[in-house]
Amino acid sequence: MDHALPPPIWPRRTPANRPPVTEEAVIDAALGLLDDRGVGAVTMRAVAARMGVTAPTIYWHVENKEGLFDRLYDRLCSEVPDPSPGDWQTRLRVLANDIRSVFKAHRDAARIAIGRFPLGPNGLRVTESALAALAEGSLVDGDASDAAFLFFSYVTSFSYQETILPARTATGDRDDALSRVEQYLSSLRPEDYPYLTRSASALSRPGLDRRFAFGLNNLLRGLAPTSSSFVAQTAQTASHSSTS
């Protein structure tokens, strides 16, 4: 499909006097920095240093840091496989888990994805897969677009949140942090926080895979065609109320 795409939305340099470094090598170096040291370490100078070249060499291929992140995000999207055949909800479920797996495989990857539209060829392919599945679920174009936004927002925000410890610990261990949260919630006065104290254990127990599946299943259930008409009716009611 790549040959049918228009030129990428990000700027490109003219080929004249291009240094003997490829754009692919630049993104490889950026991905290595991301995996080793996190998103804060991914700078133009750091990429150049990792490659053993000068910063201007990097600027021949990437106009600025945001352009570097655009390309890095597209590289991450290249690791998301096409969903296997199946009904639309099954395909979206597989796609969601595959995206989350890529985010888990690369440090701070979800932070790069938040708020960034995937405009590279690999990102377009992933978005197209989601929209195609939603269309087969009988959602009209407008609803399918809103549903795709909700779908990707859920996967990305969940993936980002699970990289953050729920409490500070000396060990940096998630189970230790959860234990501290449970101890704190359990120490609250039940007469002041009856629901928090009652749910202290459930709120702090491990099980991100279970929680991700719970949220995803309910999200997809809510995107069923019957709910689409409900959303349209709700919007129509809200519009009528605002003009009354």
Tell me what you see in this structure.
- There is one protein chain.
- 65% of the residues lie in helices and 0% in strands.
- It is mostly helical.
- Helix 5 (88-105) runs antiparallel to helix 7 (121-136), helix 5 runs parallel beside helix 8 (141-161) and helix 5 (88-105) runs antiparallel to helix 12 (208-222).
- It is flat.
- It starts with 22 loop residues before the first helix and ends with a helix.
List keywords for this structure.
244 residues; mainly alpha; 13 helices; 0% strand; flat
Summarize the helices and strands and which ones pair or pack:
Layout: H1 23-37, H2 44-51, H3 55-59, H4 65-77, H5 88-105, H6 109-113, H7 121-136, H8 141-161, H9 174-186, H10 194-198, H11 200-204, H12 208-222, H13 225-243
Shape field: flat
Q: How does the major sheet shape up?
A: none
First-residue to last-residue Cα separation: 50 Å
Query: Mean pLDDT score, rounded?
Result: 86
Structural class category: mainly alpha
What is Rg?
22 Å
Number of helices: 13
Enumerate the spans where pLDDT stays under 50 for 5 or more consecutive residues.
227-235, 240-244
Following the backbone from N to C, one meets helices and strands in this order, namely HHHHHHHHHHHHH
Per DSSP E runs of 2 or more residues, the count of β-strands stands at 0
Beta-strand share of residues = under 5%
